Amino acid sequence: MWQVYGQEHILKQLESSLKQERLAHAYLLVGPPHVGKMTLALNLAQAVNCVQGVGVPCGECSQCVRIVQGRHADVRVVGVTQREEGGPTRTVIGISDVKESLHQANLKPFEGSCTVIIFDGAEVMSIEAANALLKTLEEPPPQVLILLLTANEEGLLSTTLSRCRRLELLPLAKEQMVKKLMAEHAASAEIAERLALLSRGCVGWAINALNDPQVLEQRVADLEQIKEICESGLHERFNYANELAARFFRDRESTKELLYLWLRWWRDLILIKEGAEEYVQHPDEITHLRLQATQLTTPQIVGFVKALNQTLEALDSNANARLALEVLMLNLPGVKIRV
Ligand SMILES: [Zn+2]
Questions:
Q1: What tens digit of pLDDT does each residue of 301-331 get?
Q2: Is residue 63 part of a domain?
Q3: Residue ranges near ligand 1 (ion) with Cβ within 5 Å
Q4: Could you please report the per-residue DSSP string of 238-269?
């Protein structure tokens, strides 16, 4: 069965393509982090290799099992998070990664019936790598399925985008998420409500947070630090920018998530300014948010939201991370909340 949740609009379309054997050679899976892109990609790899026949993957045959265990010879995941133990974090999907995987694509499938190549974080592909991939997208070999996963499709070449069929994964509605966490993951109503709000509809994040208390603890600590930095002087801000840059080299994804947390905090400030408090994502911080909002003008808040978005873009396009983060901290409007 499909493991991906809440994406019926996509599954319907895929099921019908699978049954008619009219699947595209390449798909672009777009959606925010933890919304289920990799789950869907692996499910699709199962669907085209399942020995029970095309359609919904059975999840039980040797093909389906080996794929989900990451042991299937014809299903390859290429991304920057795959790295050698103890090695540095990679920042781009390079030409050699793409060439190597495309070489495999030109061979006959080894143990299954279809080779599947999944590019995780396709927006960080180098230009050379993207161009090499483009050639294959233009003339795809038979029995190959290419899946590009991205949270930021603007980071991809338009020529690449035009050669893939686009599937957009949508965040889950809050009520649906609460129901799922309670029914399938034994969450209490209170925890389910809280995680549903914090996860912004991304099931993977909510389940991680449920299974690992450290996820929520880290989030509380990150938020405390954000509040502190908003009130700090230039020296502390620069230290913070350096800390973030170092963290970015170790772990790009967690650093970007932290910047998204900043973004949500500042969006809450806009909502308060606009008199739409009921939509804030940090209702338990409402007193603090109100105090901070009174000290800022709407253009100041909007300006900083823009700066945050520009920083995220710069990090995706491999700009100098330290410089980008320092500039961001310079743009942070100062406030004084605690006395
Ligand atoms: Zn199967």
A1: 999 999 999 999 898 887 899 999 999 999 9
A2: yes
A3: 50, 52, 58, 61, 64
A4: HHHHHHHHHHHHH-HHHHHHHHHHHHHHHHHH
Domain at 256, CATH number: 1.20.272
Q: CB neighbours (10 Å) of residue 222? A: 16
Q: What is the pLDDT of residues 158-203, one digit of tens each?
A: 999 999 999 999 999 989 999 999 999 999 999 999 899 888 888 8
Residue-number span of the structural domain to which 153 is assigned: 8-168
Distance in Å, CA 113 to ligand 1 centroid = 12
Mean pLDDT of the region 142-164: 93
Residue 335 lies in a domain: no
The reported pTM is 0.80
Cα 209 to middle of ligand 1, angstroms: 30
**What is the Å distance from ligand 1's center to 68 Cα?**
11
Rounded Cα distance between 115 and 117, Å, is 7
